[in-house]
Amino acid sequence: MRRLASLLSYICISVLAVLWLFPVILVLMNSFKTLQDFSQGGLWHLPEGFAFFQNVRDAWVLGGLGQGFLNSIAYGVIGAVCSILLAALASYGLVIMQIKRAFFWFLLIYSGTIFPFQMYLIPLYMAYRKTGLFNSFGGLALFYIAICIPFCVFLLRNFMRTLPYEVVEAARIEGCSNFTVFWKIVMPMCLSPIYVLFIFQFTWIWNDLIFGLTLTQSPDIRPIMAGLSSMQGIFFRTGVTTLMAGVIITSIPTILVFFLLQKSFIKGLQLSVKG
Q: Which of 59, 104, 134, 231 has the highest CB neighbour count under 10 A?
């Protein structure tokens, strides 16, 4: 029975892997084609030439993905780092400093994730129009920071509750201030979940389309997914092959971030499950 169960598991995993890889291979294959090659052979035809770098160049320059790429890198790093730092400070106050009504404040912060994010679109758009934050780099970055804080607080608060409180008490006896305890003792102990949060939040910000389209208008401000969506119009002159190359470009950063932080990511997940 165990061998049968293992065999079925391998079959299911193999089928899922093929289903996941199939669209990736299809996109990669068509990004190598020239527009003429695609027009003659269609989506399923193997490439006869090699126009990948030309397609990437067209997507980067003509499609405007270059500026969107840089914008999304900035949005992802700023949004993830700032939201994690603010969430760590909030979690420190809730768990380590044990402020009054800590559970109430936690519920208040976490309540931002109860409703679908799409509910915030209209009031957020109107507020941004009135306050001058619409179509500004700072306005979109501020939104990404705010929207990422609740989940960061949820994870860091739960992790800090598992930390040995005796270490904090010993540091306070030695005369360490709250900031010293937070920065030199608690934060180093929270590095593993911080890596997990950075990957999650960077990936979410990078993949965001709806808020990037709603809160920005200028190509100089818009994130990369908004730029990619504009390439799908029928009037885009470089065609489907350039769009496929654009899809490849947008996939690279999140894959690199995961592989660079893979060990810390797995360790952080294991610690979170144990906690």
A: 59
